[in-house]
Amino acid sequence: MTEIPEHLLKRAAERRAALQNKDAEEPAAGAGGGGAGGGEGGGAAAAGAADAPKGPAGEGGGVATLERAGGVATGGRVAAPPVGTAGHTQRLLTVVKAGSIQDVKATPTDKVNVWPHLLVVEFAAALAMTAFLTLFSIFVNAPLLQLANPNLTPNPSKAPWYFLGLQEMLTMFHPFVAGVTIPGIALGVLGAAGYIDKNPSHKPEDRKFAIALFTIFLMFWAVLVLIGSFFRGEGQNFILPWRQGVHDIFDL
User: Fold this and answer.
1) CA-wise closest residue to 155 among 72, 217, 222, 235
2) I need a surface site. Which of 18, 19, 216, 235 has the fewest CB within 10 A?
3) Residues 201 and 128 in one domain
4) How far apart are CA 8 and CA 10, in angstroms?
């Protein structure tokens, strides 16, 4: 249980003492008034009442005094307990901290602002990569071939690695199918994935459809690039790189 603050205990003790003094002054004032009006008889009665032992009102003419938690009983009358401004009886039970009453659970969040948490990291990574490429290009020459000869076409003539997937499909399908139909369908499905899977969750276990779709697309394109890079030799014929050698394939 929470301890009652010291200032509340002090205030309650002062209030209790003030009420006891007030209740004690009321019978004394009544006894003084009776003595003044009755002369010596009143004084004798007061003295007799003072000398008599405390007990019930019918024995020995004494004055019964009973102290209670709610007030003071004097002569069979119980004084009213302290009353507030609105007429309600006030009683201090205990002082409880607000935290033990209000059970408010804060909702955890895993979101941060783009600036500065994301952009600062991306900018630092871009600077680091730029510095690495600059130093690498100073000490290592690019593996470029000799100047192009219009009278001599290299065999095999391969596209850059990011277009090798399209070049590989040209060896299997009609040019319109390989260059327009299949890429158009793939890009259309990827563009519609956001409208098909409307799950707002950012957790991978809740986005199985989107992750499976992109994984299929990525693996399909990666396999085509690997085949066009290492498994196509002279005349775009299918070869095994561990038999012919990588240097012969790339003309290094």
Assistant:
1) 235
2) 235
3) no
4) 5
Contact present, 45 and 38 (Cβ < 8 Å): yes
Q: What pLDDT, in 10s, does the model give residues 157-167?
A: 888 888 988 99
Distance of alpha carbon 148 from alpha carbon 169, whole angstroms: 26
pTM above 0.85, yes or no: no
Q: Are 96 and 48 in contact (CB under 8 A)?
A: no
Provide the pLDDT for residue 68. Answer: 44
Same domain, 160 and 250: yes
Give the largest Cα separation in the chain, rounded: 151
- For 121-147, how does the pLDDT look when each residue is reduced to its tens digit (9 = 90+)? 999 999 999 999 999 999 888 777 778
Instruction: Domain of residue 211: give its range.
Output: 155-252
Separation CA 25–CA 30 (nearest Å): 9
pLDDT of residue 147: 82
3-state secondary structure of 82: coil
Count of domains forming the chain: 3
Element (H, E) at 209: helix 208-230
